Fold these 2 entries.
Entry 1:
Amino acid sequence: MLSVITRILLTSTMSISTVLRMVLNVEQSIRAICNCVMVALAEFEAITTKALIPRVYPFKSIDIKEAVCPERLDVPPPPPSNIPKEALSVDKDTPDYHVPRDSRLIRLTGVHPFNSEAPLTELYNQGFLTSPELFYVRNHGPVPRVQEEDIPKWELRIEGLVENPLVLNFKQILQDFDQFTLPVTLVCAGNRRKEQNQVRKSKGFSWGPAGVSTALFTGPLMSEVIWKARPFRRAKYVCMEGADKLPNGFYGTSVKLNWVMDPNRGFMLAHKMNGEPLRPDHGRPLRAVVPGQIGGRSVKWLTKLILTESPSDNWYHIYDNRVLPTMISPEVASKDTKWWKDERYAIYDLNINSAAAYPQHGEVLSLSTSGPIYTAKGYAYSGGGRRITRVEVSLDKGASWNLTEINYPEDKYRDFESDLFGGRVDMHWRETCFCWCLWSLEIPVSNLEKSDAILVRAMDESMNIQPRDMYWSVLGMMNNPWFRISITNENGTLKFEHPTQPALMPGGWMEQVKKAGGNLTNGFWGETSEGKPLEEAPVKEINMKKDGLNNTIELEELRQHDSSEEPWFVVNGEVYDGTKFLEDHPGGAQSIISAAGRDASEEFLAIHSETAKAMMLDYHIGTLSKAAIEGLKDASQEEQGQCSGEVFLEPRSWKKAELCKKQIVSWDTRVFTFQLQHEEQTVGLPTGQHLMLKLKDPSAANKSLIRAYTPFSQTDRKATMELLVKIYAATNTTKGGQMTTALDGLQIGATVEFKGPIGKFRYLGRGKITLNEKEREVNSFRMICGGSGITPIFQVLRAVMQDPEDMLNCVVIDGNRMEEDILCRAELDAFAKMKAPQCTIVHSLTKATETWTGRRGRISKELLEEFASPSEGSMVLICGPESMEKSAKEILLALGWKEVDIVLF
Ligand code: MTE
């Protein structure tokens, strides 16, 4: 019946209604026939539309020049694109080894994951559209590897609250739906975040103002794809999921279903960018494009659309892309999840923003040779499709404003009538603005000469205007105060400075104001309204001096206390007697003895907590005389110049060593190799002890970072020494590790300093140990570690395993998040094989995948009961994050272990 009607419709010249009437005369149930007719009509419509719309199937790359003939177009063509051919060498040892990239992009989170922006001038000079290789990139983790031949099999599932769950392959997405091409500006919610980080470090990494880019995206409308799955009435949200597997699951987020279905909003699925198939970093082969909203909603490597009643419960939807109230500090936010789960704080539409690209940061204008006019230029955008209606510039701190010229290249596409890159440019009926616009203003140089800064602000059609003051929030997102370029007039030249430079790049007036003690939060860019820098609020000092103690100590007296007997040491010119604390110092007596008779200020202040500092009152015995302070300085300079002999480390003075090799072991783990002072030298570290590493803090001048490490290389190795370090890079929700990110940033040839050994425990071999210098024997070790805490444990274990005569029984309980986080796994497993049953290794993972067959969960009572119950002559060694060490110790004590048999490294 159905095909009969279809044939009639296709072949006859009768109108559809005549056919219908004819059909309705037959002796069938009217209801059944009508149903058939509806289906037939739909089929008919589909057949005819298919004939009308040419469908270009772009499995192979299309040459843009062929696809777009600029003379034919009155629209801005994409800038010439140079597809990077090979992965850069920095990426070769990361999970993104397969992703070719442009080396001009500025990396914002170290080597991996790849988050980057183009230099602002290059971005602006590209014009309205950005080439895919300079388009900003925001990847939360590794880029999924999608081979050319796998693309046709790429599947998109549409599921959840739908009548007709669907699995569409890539080919169907291209062939079964109308294709559209739309210019869209994507903006990361963190754009301009470095300015927030200058005021107060947020939980996010430092974007400059180039976390914004524009491209022509091609693909079907998201609404058409969802429509086909027939959403239920109660479906309210569309959750999207990408194929990138991250520590907290796949990347995912949600948007409202009614937005998706609203043709004005232009939500689409894209497989092309500027006419080329998507590049790996931008979601190859398929991504969502959500115009007018923050980039975080445009899910890349899209695999699922799930219709739900509530917003997404994906970790990245909850803990990312939010503006929490400004008074919520990072500490409060991390303690209480309610702040994250409140949908009111989730960001969808972009807010209004603008920046200037010209003058460039660091640009210099000679007053004697320049023309009379300088043209300032920049960009502006707003959210939700709202048009930018004005961009204004002030040269007098906002007292008066000048209207700029605005160019809206997006409007050119509204009149475009044919297909572009295989998609219809269907914008003539829609008035929404989804792209940035470009502004410019001709300014008399004489006005610039009189000004101290160029201020830029934009307004949109809803009269939203950029604020003067910053709204700081925990994630540092949606930063949009007036963009300010400072002007310094020096000997006939004007020097321009942007607020910041991206990533850890130094420069920008905000950094200078901060250094000079100005207050960046007062709304006057660190100045009073009269132009003078304000005093910075004083930092709370911990009192480490006894009230009323008037005891001056000379150098000679200090020197008499330079050994383990009554060790005295100096912090900030004050003298402390460490004798009473020798037994209790968590780092072992050696930590105090190494400082005896010396000035320990730098390392004491760098590594001790406020609680430790407050304890110093009890040990304070007097103040060093001025002459003694000078004498101490001279002595320490002399020592530093000395070159030591057989062993490198000195317990009492810092020794310099050069970084000669950096090996990337995994995306977050490195082995750093340091050159000792000569070929025959060994590091000089007893097994079980640690050394201190000191390097300059890249984020604060004149400050050092000091941490304890245990080398990974054998202690008797000559000429070089290796450290295995896990890099804790900053993410949107966590602060990066200061020391590990600084280490990761070191160039080959950089010099760092070491001192040691330190630690209260030593393994002498074959069951002999010393704890706080007291020797004893043990018959087994229970070694409990978490994450990078494996390094000291590994050193002891290796000493036992490598000595065939050493019969000590060792059980290692190693806690990690995921399989890839397990450090030294191959070596550990080899020891277990080599010396079974003397050596047992137990890995327990908190975020294991389904295929993991080992233990799961944290280091729990059950695990410790099973593998570390107390036994006569045994000793427990623990090393890991503080919380893990504390909870393991509590469990062990409850299990019956004695305090003296538990060593925390
Ligand atoms: N989609 C997936 N699957 N994984 C991601 O890490 N990052 C989001 C979004 N989509 C992300 C994602 C964020 S925060 C932004 S700003 C945009 O992608 C960036 O898109 P781009 O890298 O193509 O510029």
Entry 2:
Amino acid sequence: MKQTFKTYEKDTRVGRVSFYELKSKDVTLLLTSYGAGIVDIIFDDTNLCARPESIEDYLDSKAYYGKTIGRTSGRLFPPYFELDGKKIKIENTPGDVSHLHGGADGFAFKNFSLISFEQRNDETSITLRYVSSDEEAHYPGELTLDVTYILKENNDIIFKHYATTTKDTLCNITNHVYLNLNKNKNNLEHHHIKINADQYLKVDQNYRPINKQDVSGSVFDLRETKSLKEQIDIFDQKNMMAYDHAFFLNDEKIAADVYDQASDIGLRVETDYPTIVFYTHNYIEDKKMLLCDTNGVHGSITLECQYEPSGIYHKDLNDSILRKNEVYQHTVKMTPYKKHTK
Ligand code: G6D
């Protein structure tokens, strides 16, 4: 089947925004220039993405639905971080005590430019670019980020992050797509999760990194497929916030696999990033959610492939420093599948 591609623009409350629809036999991928975001992933007549119902609410949401995150994913802690002994000032993200997801000038709220489009028989790809100026959000260096999305006929959805900088800086990019593999998005009732990680990053109540911890015997041990509802119930029984943690991936082909028994739809994740931040939408969503009449809490998950957040503050972690003579290059592959094909 010949893949199809459609693009259109919309005037929105965040300005003129482009949308790109990449379509294969089984998958429709809807992307946007704003935050180089994933809007929808349609597979087996089901939207696998959880997001606000209105596109306007999706675009400027502070829950980062589907958005590309940068310069840094996760948290940095004001008033500064140190880079080669130099204190670099950072400011908190409005509404958060930390500098979350790149701060007020985060890439999730920047309008990327389409710089290339390619279509071959078995794949369609687009590349979106954002140039972050020197000292934007106080980060050193002009950083150019290219996000390439590829939809392949075998249902692989690939996104590549490629960045260079004019000065040594921090760079830790991810995609923050929320997933619920059921047509009904009210809960994760029949979802199961597997993350191939022997360790996770233990954090304090302010999400500051403490240390790497073995997952064995804990609620963080997801090396065998577990019921998501049962796992979240364990946190609830301990009156603890559920998953919002970085998992250090083992050197295995499949990093994570989420599967909904009710829809028989699964999604496999592969990546060359060292960690996945697994988040179970722990906060109330005040906007009307698509195909959902609850407040969104624990109604979806993210599997954010990235470097461990806040690594610059901890000598044993990846520091996410990108040097001016280096290239930042990482790939994520998400592949939807039907477990029991008809
Ligand atoms: C909360 O702590 C969580 C983050 O991990 C998440 O990315 C954000 O909500 C959307 O701040």
